[in-house]
Every structure is written in C-alpha cells, then in structure tokens.
Fold this sequence. Notes:
- Chain A is an all-alpha fold.
- Helix content of chain A is 73%, strand content 0%.
- Chain A has 15 helices and no strands.
- In chain A, helix 4 packs across helix 15 and helix 5 packs parallel to helix 9.
- Chain A is flat, with a radius of gyration of 25 Å.
- The N terminus of chain A is likely disordered.
- Chain B is globular.
- Chain C is globular.
- Chain C has 18 helices and twelve strands.
- The termini of chain C are far apart.
- In chain C, strands 1, 2, 3, 6, 11 and 12 form a six-stranded mixed β-sheet that branches. In chain C, strands 8-9-7-10 form a four-stranded mixed β-sheet. Chain C has a two-stranded antiparallel sheet with strand order 4-5.
- The longest helix of chain C has 19 residues.
- The N terminus of chain C is likely disordered.
- Chain C has two domains: 186 residues, D-Maltodextrin-Binding Protein, domain 2 (3-Layer(aba) Sandwich), CATH 3.40.190; 194 residues, 3-Layer(aba) Sandwich (D-Maltodextrin-Binding Protein, domain 2), CATH 3.40.190.
- Classes of the chains: A mainly alpha, B mainly alpha, C alpha/beta.
- Chains in contact: A-B, A-C, B-C.
- At the A-B interface, helix 1, helix 2, helix 5, helix 6 and helix 7 of A face helix 1, helix 3, helix 4, helix 5 and helix 6 of B.
- Chain A: Belongs to the binding-protein-dependent transport system permease family.
- Chain A: It is found in: Cell membrane.
Amino acid sequence: MNARAPRNQQLRRTWSSVFETGTGARIYPYLMVLPAIIIVVGVVVYPLVSGVMSAFYDVTLRTLNSGDMAFVGLRNFERVFADPSFGIASFNTLVWVVLNVVVQLSLGLGLALLLHRAIPGIGFFRSGILVPWVVPSVVAVLTWRWMYDPSVGIVNELLVRWGIIEDYHPWLGDTATSLYAVTVESIWKGTPFVMLLLLAALQLVPRSILEAASMDGASGWRKLWHVILPQIRVSFAIAAVLTFILTVNNFNAIWLMTEGGPLNSSEILFTLAYKYGFQRYDLGMASAVATMLFVGLVIATTLYLKLIQAKEGE
Amino acid sequence: MSSAAITATPAGTAVSVPPLRRSWTPKWLRVGFLYAGLWVAFVWCVFPFYWMIATSLRAKDELFARPPSLVPHSFTFQSYIDLLVGAEFWRFALNSLILTASVTIISVAISVTAGYAMARHRFKGSVALPLFMLYGQMFPPVLLLIPFYIQLRWLGWLDSLYGLIPVYLSYMLPLCVWLMRGFFSQVPHSLEDAARLDGCTRWQAFWRVILPMARPGIVAVATWVMIHTWNEFLYASTFILSDKNRTLPLGLSGLIGQYTTDWGMLMAGGVITSAPILLVFFFLQKHLVSGVGGGAVKG
Amino acid sequence: MRHFLKYSTAAAALAATLGATPAFADNVVLWVNAPLASAPDAPIYAELKAFEAETGHTVEIQAVPHMEMERNLFVAMSGGAGPDVMALDIAWVAGLADAGLLADVTDKSDPIADQYQPGPLSAGRFKQRQYAMPLYTNNVALYVNNKMLAEAGIDAAPKTWDEFQAAAIAMTDKDAGTFGLTFGGSRVGAFQLYPFIWQSGAEIIADDGTVGVDSPEAIEAVQFISGLYTEHQAMPASVLTANSWDEVNAPFIQERAGMLISGDWAIGALNNGNPDLDYSIVPLPAGKEAATVIGGYNLAINANSGVSDASWELVEWLTGPRSVELMAQYNRLSAQAAAATDEAIAKLPEELQPFMMQASAGHARPVVAQWSQIHSDVFGTVWDSALRGEPIDEVMTQAATQIRQILGQ
C-alpha cells in the first residue's frame, strides 16, 4: 500500500539519487568515510610507523644528527626492562588507569543522570560542571599544585579546619599519597567529558521507554540497570575506551605536578618514556616504552570491544 | 515535528502492571536531594576555578599569606589590565579563534559522514576501519613530535596556523568519528525507514532527518574538538615559533618563568582563556536537549 | 597599475637592502629564553637594533619559554632545523655539544677568553673545546630573615657550617611553627646541595672524570644538610615536594623559615610576596672552602647554521663588553670579567652585590653529556632518599655506581 508512494517520488531526481542504485550505491559508504581516511592515513601513518620503528633502532640525539642509526633489535627493550623504574611505572600505570577509568565513568554517569532532567537552572549547573574540562590543562594542573601546597595550599587549610587532618600535609611530596593526589586532579578534569558524552546519549533515549518503565513502577536502580544503560551502551562503551586512552596518555597532570616523583612514586609509563626521550635524549628507549604502551592499549581496547560485540550478539 | 506523538510504547510494557509502589519520599524531598546533589557536584567542579579567580584578584603580597583565606582580602584587577592592554594578547586570541573554528568545522563535517557510514552501512572494512583509526590515537603524542616536525618541515608548513590544522585533525578526527558513530547507532532505524518511505534518497534521509536527530551528539563532538583545540599546547609550542602565530596557551606558558611565576597573571590568563568557551557552551548546551528525547518516533 | 605597484615596492625593497647594508648581510635566527624578550620594549630589542646598524646583518628573534626550550631545541635540531644562535641553560651545553649539534668556537673565542669570568666560561667548555659563551651568570647565596635571626639570639649571619647549623636550629620553634631553613626537594634540592658538596672538598665529577660522590666528604655534606630535616626538624615539610622555586620561597616569605638558599631570581619574588620582609643576602657559609653553584644562560651556535660568521658576530656582541650594560637593565649579572671588579660591583644594586662578590667561588656543574640525566635521576633521587631517612652512605655509594655506569666507566 505504502510502496507506491516512494516509487512515484523517486521520479523526482536530485543529485543524490545517484547513490540509490548500482555503482553509486556501492561506493556511497566509501565516499562518506573517504575524507576521514585520507586525513588519518596522510597524517598519522608516517609518525606512527616511524615511532614504532625507533624502538628497534639506536636513536639518540647524536645518531639523529649524524643520520647513522643502527638497527639494534630488542636491545632498547632489554635496557628498559633492566631499569628498576620500569616495574614501578608499570604498576603505577595500572593503578592510575583503573582508578581513573572506574571513577570517571561512574561519576560521569551519575552526573549525566543528575543533569539530564529539564529543571530550572539546569543550564547553569551544566555549564558549571563543564568548567574543569574547559580550563587550559597547564593552568588547571598548576592551580591544583598550589591547592595541595604544604605551605599555602587551600586544600590543607580546609582539611585542617574541618578537622580531617592535624597539620598541613605535603600531599604531592609523600610517596604514599602522591599518585592518588594527582589522580584526584585527573578525575576532576576528565569527568565532565564523560558526563557530556553520556548526557548527549541519554537525550537520545526515547522518552516513551523511560515513561513506560516509570509506569511499570520500576525502582530507580532497576530502571537505570535494565532500561537506561542498555539504551546508551554503545556510547558508554565508547566513553570507556576514550577515557582509557586519554588516561594512559595524560601527561600534563603528572608531569607538571610531580614529574613522576618523589622517588618514582607517581611515575607512569608515559612520564618514563618522556624522561628517556627528552631528558636522556634516548628516543630508542622512549619508543620502546611507547611501543609497549601502544601494543597494550591496542590489545586491551580490541578485547574490550570484541567482548561488547559478543554480548550484543547474545 | 509532531512532538506529542508518543504513540508507540515498546510491546508488552503496558500489560501486567505490578501494583504501583510509590516511593515513600515526597516529591519536594526528592527535588531537594536532586538540587543538593547538583550543588555538591557544582562546588566540586567549580572550586578550583574559583580558586584561580581568587588568586588572579589577590594582591601580590597576599598570595603567600598563611593561612590562605577563601575570599581575597583585597581585590586588584591589575593582572587583567596588564593582560588585556597591549596587542599581544588579542593577537593570540585571534589566532586561537581562527584555528579552533577551522578545526572544529572540518572535523565535525568529516566525522559526521564517516561516523554515520560506519554506524549504518555494511561495507568492506566497516568493522576494521574504526578500530584502525582508533589505534592511531594510542601512541604517546610526545613521541610523535619529531616525525610530525619532519613532515611539516618537508611541506614547508612549520610555524604556521594552517600547518597545525592537519596535526590537530589527526588526533581529533578518530575520536570524533567514534563518538558520532556511537550517537548514530542510537538513532532508531525506524526514523530513517520512515523517511525513505516518504521518498527521500539515502542522502536526503541522512541530511534532513537523521542529522537533526543527532544534534546532541554533534554538539558534544563539537564541544570536544573546540575545547581541545582551544587549549592544545604541546604541538603548538613545538611547531609555532614566531610571536605572530602564537596561540593563547602559548601566551599562557610564557607567563611561567624559569624560577618564579607571576601567579596573578597566569591565573588571570587562565580565566580569560576559559571564559569564551564557557560562554559558547552555555548557549550550546540547550541543543543538547532535543532529538529523539522529544519523542518523535513514528510507528 | 597593479604591476606598477608591485615593481615599485620590489624596487624600493631592493634599494633599501642595497643601500643600508654592506656586501655580506646575513639573516640570523636567534632563540632566547622568554624573560629576555618578554615585552616589545625589552632591552634586547634595542641591543639587536644597534647590532644590525653596526654590522648590517638582520636578526630574527624568537622567544622560547625556559620550560619548552630544551624540548623545542631537541625536536627542531633532530629535524635538521633550529635557530642559528640559541640561548642555552648552561647545564644543557654538554649534551648538545656531544651530539655534534653545536659549532666549535674555540678558535674564535680563545683570543677573547680573558674577557670572561673563568667559572661561567668553563660551563661552555666541553672536552677542551669551547661551544658556548656566557650571556649572563648567577649563583646561589644565603638569604637570612634579620628579625627571626635576632629573635633567636644570634647577632650575625652564619659564615661557617657550624654557625649555619646552630642558626637553623635556633630559629626552629615547633610551637611557633617556625623553621631554620627552607629547601627544595628532588632536582631543586639537589641544585642547592651541590655547593655544600664542593665546600666539603669533594668533587661531583672531577675534570678527569673521577666520580667523587661516594667520598667521605661528599657523604658528610649530604648528611649535614639532610640532617637539618631528618634529625633537627629545622626544615618545613614543604621540602618533600618543593620542585619549583616558588614553593621553596613560600615559607621564607611567610616568615616561617629563617633562611633560604637561592639566586638573585628570588629577590623579585620575595619583595612581591611580602614587601615588609626584612632580610639580608650574604655569601653562602663556607665549609673547608667557599663554594657556590653557577647558573645562567649561554649563547651557542648551531653546527648546521648557514651563517656561522654572522652568528659568531652576534654572540660576541651580546656576550661581550656591552653585556655589562645590557644585563644591568635586566637586573642580571654579566659574566664579563670587567663586571666583577670592585668598582663594577659597587655600581650594582645593593642586593646583587653579594652574588658578584662570591662569583670567584663559583663552580660550574660537571660538563658531561649526560648531566641532565645525572642531575634529575641520580641526584634528585639521592636527595629525596636522604630526606626520607635512607642511610646516606648507601645512597651515595649507589649514586656513584650509577653515575659511573651512565658515564660508561
């Protein structure tokens, strides 16, 4: 019955009708992704390949200048493994990533649920909660460093006033707290992005579904778990992957607050790679660390996405 | 748009309604909790920013006062005056604006089509391609500096704003494509089918029906690109040399000295840098509320 | 019409170039650290104008913040580019020279070597060759809070280690929350520590490459300073985290710490932070001998520069006799020998005089290619471990082993 209408309409040809049949239809999706591919291939492939290759060559300031870079096989990796900092940094990276991803995702989801209603003043709250993300990262990190400062830090002052600690504490100077103090800053900075993603995703959940669930008398938690989360699962998975990547590559927070110290207590693999590369001028070692990070990230994300797809398939 | 058309409920939901268990909390209390939650989140997020503003307004001799006071004792706008008077700051801002606008427009335009194609069409590589793009993001950016530098030098694009555009796109685009892909996959197929039945071509269905639906997603992606380009520091600081091409974050880092930093100026700079983006977002955020949430689902 | 305009501008430009300059006019790209070119009216611009007028060369100046200078130089020079003349923190010279990135200027600099103070000049010397000329110099001295010192019942600023320790302990009062000395952590602390190692008579790395870090004297020096925190609690807890000078200064500004070891860069920060602060600057207390650590910036020439002669003219101009005048405008110290004579010192602002007076006791940090790594990794760790109560002799023995390994001995 309905089938006649489109056929009639199809007579009205526009330029985009080319993509309806035949070759046009076949290349349509490719045309749509082409610009993205051109840019990614044009700009990313060479640096990436050369970065990974450096891990297997003797690349230092001296060899870069003379152009005489020898292939050294796995030597760079061996040297990295021999460095006791590497073990500490690997463990710290694990703690850093797990803490950041878990807390940012749960806080982000909570905030998105709070901010998703249309209630008076919501624009004000939305903009406010976005603030951490908007502040230039260098300034944000230095502000936090001042807030933690054991001489003039407002964090110390507030905690003392509230009776939580007795005296000003060097949060970034204590090997037991430095990594966690930096993590707090990074969670503060990263959560709004997750919030925004999930907020946008929540807006795409058909209201009818939510209302139906409410009419069913589903309690808040059950509604969240059985109705809302399945609806936004793709965005949630993407938020998880992106947070993961951004956390591993978050350099400013740690570098500008502690430089990985004191005594490697807040060293992650990224800062270690930076030290190898830009303090020792040994890009071979730096790339070896970076390559391991890269491979780890690739495996982790691929596994995660496969898992999600498998679940969807059920 | 027929906004009231909430005709379709998923099958079976209307049947067998269990006895309504009204929650025991009265409505005003729940609203109260909601606002309390919002305020807690708000203070947590905004406090460091407030601290930046407070620091930027303090007199220099109050900066090291112990104990630090929550509200400055004395106010001075000297740092802001010092920053805003003089052409340098405005030139940095203009550079940042040009760069941010270009990168945002290009990456949104490209990622919208690519994300849509990846979400909706099956084609050779439709599974591998997005993954491949994402992999490009996983190498620590600091170590890409030298290869990028060599590439830009070869092209003669060093020390130019347009030279930064491809570099930024390289790390914005994959994420944008992924985000858009996620949002598009959430827009119900029924909408597109309906449009097709109405006689739209595939492109028209995408352009006229799907794209407006995905507006919250586009706003989210645009915000992401905007903020990151506006604040990007590492690449800009390495590839931009001359004063006339500097962007705002580079201007800011110039305020951090080898030995001492003028904290008032730096914080004022941070506040001024953040302000335009916050303002833009305040207006953009309205568009986060729209699309399918409006209930325009046709049966 | 358009063609006419185009030609006439071209002709004008040509005429200007020909008219104003002698035959060999080169364009020199110069990277300076940002504070020297912070505003369009910074003194260096006038100086460069004078240079251009005198020599006919043109100079393109690019200001790079200290924080990014090392990385940007590394990236640019690895990419085969970079400036013709660059300002370098004196601690970076060896690394770049070792990689063959800096032009050897020994032949040109030897005839004028006696113009410069020997300490700063030696910081630009790597393996018996000169690679960089000192642009300005600085060193660290002792800042003392006069009021706190008097209240502690001491009438003169400390001149020896014993007096220094006694003063630090006397100014420490747990109930009042005051401490004797504020100090940096990690790299900054290590930098402040070096003078004391030299004062004990030990060497960090001697000219012949001998590592002296595990000598009893060096161990004693580290013990002496770290003991002020671990044993006498005469330093505030900020020492554990202070890896910027602002954090080191803070307790001194707040009058919670009576002494500070810092260079001339602290003066502005102290006066801004607490205009009422009553302090004096004196040479560092001496151990077996007097010693302080030299800092500052050098000028070096890119080995791949196409305009090396013009570059050398620029280096000579900026670091030469005129630098006394130029650096005075920045409140910095020229490294010219003429700037260290008694008459020259008397002309300096009063608060800068102590620094110039002890300049002859200045030691350059070891000029070895791997210094950045030794400083950050090894000495940063030494100092952080010492503060956290590790046995000093073990820490120092380990550090010596590490340094020998890094140096390939």
